[in-house]
Specification:
By secondary structure, this protein is α/β, with parallel strands linked by helices. It is built from six helices and 18 strands. It is globular, with a radius of gyration of 19 Å. The relative contact order is 0.22.
C-alpha cells in the first residue's frame, strides 16, 4: 500500500486525501493550524459554482467536479449545492460566457433579471445551473469521506520540507504557503476582502461582473446562509506574506458597498461586517498540478478553485500514485 502525505487541509488537501484514500493509499493529512481556521483560502459558508466561463477549458472540469459533489452528497446525506442560478453582467456578448456555453451545450438565457441592475448597454446572462456550494460543509464532507476510508489527520503540523516526511509521495496543497515547497512557482499571494449584507427575501442568484478593461471578473456577489449576501472585489487585494495576519481593506469594502447599492437595490447596503481570505494566483489563473520527483504540487486556486476540488483531488491522487 503506497504511503502518501498531504500537506494542507484546505478544500484541495481534503479532496486529495479523499481521492487517495479511495484509491487505497495510506494517507496522512498534515495541517499547520486547526481544521476550521481562517488564515487560508477555504473558510467561509459559501462559494460560487458555475459553468459560465469565458474560457471553455473550464467547463468539462466543472462538470466532472459537479458530478463528484453529487456523489458526496449521496454518500454523506448532506446538501452541498444550492443551484440558485448565476447572473453574469458583461460589457458585450463577446466578453461574456455565452460563446463558450453554446459550444459546451450549457443552457442559459439572455435578458434582464429582476432585482439586478446592469449598466446601460451591457449583456445580462443567466445560467440556471449556477449557484452556490456550502463551502465549510463541503470541506468537512470531503474530510469525513477521507477519514472513513482510513486517512489520518495531524493538526498543528507545520511541514517545513517534503524531506521531513516519511512517505512514498508528498502532495502539497498548502495554498499560499506553496512557495515553501516550490519557490520557482510564479504565483502572487493577496489578501482579499469580502463584505456581508442583509437580504431577507428569497436567496439571490450568484452574480459576477466582467471588467471592460481586462475581460475578467471584477465584482461578485452570492448567497450567504446567515446574512443573505456576500460580495467583494475579485483580485482586488494587496500582495502579502501569508504568515502575516491582517484585516479587511476598508477601501475595498467601501467599493463593494457602492457596487451593491448600484446593482442590487433590494439589498440593504449597510454592511454587516467584512472578513478576509487569501488568493494564490498564477499569471493565467490556471492551476499547477504537476509531479516533481516524489512531490506533487497542487496549486493554485487563483480565486476560483473551490468548485473544482473533487476533480482536482482525483488528478492529484493519480499523479501521486503514478
Amino acid at each position: 500500500m503506497p504511503r502518501v502525505a498531504v500537506v494542507g487541509a484546505g478544500v484541495m488537501g481534503c479532496a486529495a486525501a479523499w481521492a487517495l484514500a479511495d484509491a487505497g493509499a495510506e494517507v496522512t493529512l498534515h495541517e499547520q493550524f486547526e481544521l476550521d481556521h481562517t488564515r487560508g483560502s477555504s473558510h467561509g459558508r459559501s462559494r460560487i459554482v458555475r459553468y459560465a466561463y469565458h474560457d471553455p477549458y473550464w467547463i468539462p472540469l466543472a462538470r466532472e467536479a459537479r458530478d463528484a459533489w453529487r456523489e458526496l452528497e449521496a454518500e454523506s446525506g448532506e446538501t452541498l449545492l444550492e443551484l440558485l442560478g448565476l447572473v453574469e453582467l458583461a460589457p458585450s456578448r463577446e466578453l461574456g460566457s455565452a460563446p463558450a456555453l453554446e459550444q459546451a451545450g450549457v443552457e442559459f438565457e439572455v435578458g434582464p433579471v429582476e432585482g439586478i441592475v446592469a449598466p446601460d448597454g451591457w449583456t445580462t446572462l443567466r445560467e440556471p445551473s449556477g449557484g452556490v456550494i456550502h463551502a465549510d460543509r463541503a470541506r468537512l464532507v470531503l474530510l469525513d469521506a477521507a477519514r472513513s476510508r482510513g486517512a489520518e489527520v495531524v493538526l498543528g503540523s507545520r511541514v517545513a520540507s517534503a524531506d521531513d516526511l516519511d512517505a512514498d509521495a508528498v502532495v502539497v496543497t498548502a495554498g499560499s504557503w506553496v512557495r515553501d515547497f516550490a519557490p520557482d512557482l510564479p504565483v502572487r499571494v493577496t489578501r482579499e476582502t469580502v463584505t456581508y449584507f442583509r437580504h431577507d427575501g428569497p436567496p439571490l442568484p450568484s452574480i459576477v461582473e466582467v471588467s471592460p478593461e481586462t475581460g475578467l471578473h471584477q465584482m461578485y456577489a452570492l448567497h450567504d446562509p446567515v446574512h443573505g449576501l456576500k460580495a467583494g472585489v475579485h483580485h482586488g487585494g494587496a500582495e502579502v506574506d501569508p504568515d502575516d495576519e491582517g484585516g479587511p481593506d476598508p477601501e475595498i469594502a467601501a467599493r463593494t458597498v457602492a457596487w451593491v447599492r448600484e446593482r442590487l437595490p433590494g439589498v440593504d447596503p449597510e454592511p454587516l461586517g467584512s472578513e478576509t481570505c487569501l488568493y494564490t494566483t498564477t499569471p493565467d489563473e490556471r492551476f499547477v498540478l504537476e509531479r516533481r520527483g516524489r512531490v506533487v504540487i497542487g496549486s493554485a486556486c487563483s480565486g476560483h478553485g473551490f468548485k473544482f476540488a473533487p476533480a482536482v483531488g482525483r488528478r492529484l491522487a493519480e499523479l501521486a500514485l503514478a
